[in-house]
Amino acid sequence: MSRDIDGRFLDFAPEVRSTLEKGGAVVALESTIITHGMPHPQNVTTAREVEAVVRVNGAVPATIAIIAGRIKVGLTDEELDWLGTATDVMKLSRADLPYAIAARRHGATTVAATMICAHLAGLRVFATGGIGGVHQGVEITMDISADLDELTRTPVTVVCAGAKAILDLPRTLEYLETRGVPVVAYQTDDFPAFWSRTSGLTAPIRLDSPEAVADLIDIKEALGLGGGVLVANPVPRADEIPADEMKVFIDRAVAEARRRGVVGKAVTPFLLSFLFESTGGRSLATNIALVKNNAALAARLAASLAKPAS
Ligand code: PSU
Ligand code: MN
């Protein structure tokens, strides 16, 4: 269960707490996708739909965010609505978490920060859209998402649709391999590319059922290897934007970010919103579909992990 025994930092939603106490299945969800990843009102409607998808697939959702310095594990409807339009919410990664808590700030958790909070809360599975990774132009900017290092140290399984295709995907995979993070493609041989089902890169591992992924997670933990597991689940065929179509828009977005001098935490939100505009909303529709698809798999995985060993 939770390592935060005295409740010093964490506030659990009652349903999340009671489910954890019974050893039931809970799926962590992040909040940066709500505050910095999607426009309003689609951000809030998606967050609700994603929670519903988790339930339908046999688990309890716990959306994680920092509100007035408290780590919320599971948000109320009111908190979720508020988050959807709030303007004073920080984008929190590992480096920002202690400050946000100490200064009683509001913060949306990225993949890295959500993994940390999920682990503190005793959750093992987390669903998102796409992880951050090595950015294009890393030779000059050294921009590598803290999400990658978090996967090397925090034992939470992240279900995503690959790394966002705005990134340098070959280098992202190299980095994960160097740092010893198992990367599992789900029911495919290829590492998926967020909006597209394939990146043209072969994934290191392929598994075809939630039970097989659960086995791998249990064994990794039993071996004491530390760190997380990345599960890359391709967007459903009907919702994908083929990689060659997407590339045109991505190249334009990356060039525009460079021209405007966008750096640091602002890069990913800028690229996502630029793509939303330039694709006439199509990139967002695909993003929504892939997050739901990941939530469904994460719930089935959490349910499989929660089963008592036979
Ligand atoms: N998945 C999405 N949309 C998003 C994100 C993930 O579909 O906006 C967020 C996650 O919170 C992830 C972050 O951690 O993008 C990556 O930000 P950066 O590249 O600055 O590390
Ligand atoms: Mn970055």
Automatic annotation (TrEMBL):
Cofactor(s) essential for the protein: Mn(2+)
Annotated substrate binding sites: K91, V111, S145, A146, D147
Record's keyword annotation contains Acetylation: no
Reaction equation(s) it catalyzes: D-ribose 5-phosphate + uracil = psi-UMP + H2O
Comment on bound cofactor: Binds 1 Mn(2+) ion per subunit.
GO cellular component: a single term: cytoplasm
Enzyme class: lyase
A Pfam family recorded for this sequence: Indigoidine_A
GO molecular function, one term: pseudouridylate synthase activity
Keywords of this entry: Glycosidase, Hydrolase, Lyase, Manganese, Metal-binding
EC number assigned by the record: 4.2.1.70
InterPro entries according to UniProt: Indigdn_synthA-like, PsuG
Keyword Membrane: no
Chain's role: Catalyzes the reversible cleavage of pseudouridine 5'-phosphate (PsiMP) to ribose 5-phosphate and uracil. Functions biologically in the cleavage direction, as part of a pseudouridine degradation pathway.
PANTHER family found in the cross-reference section: CARBOHYDRATE KINASE PFKB DOMAIN-CONTAINING PROTEIN, ZGC:136858
Subunit organization: Homotrimer.
Family: Belongs to the pseudouridine-5'-phosphate glycosidase family.
UniProt protein name: Pseudouridine-5'-phosphate glycosidase
Species the sequence originates in: Microvirga vignae
Phylogenetic lineage: Bacteria, Pseudomonadati, Pseudomonadota, Alphaproteobacteria, Hyphomicrobiales
Gene from which this protein is expressed: psuG
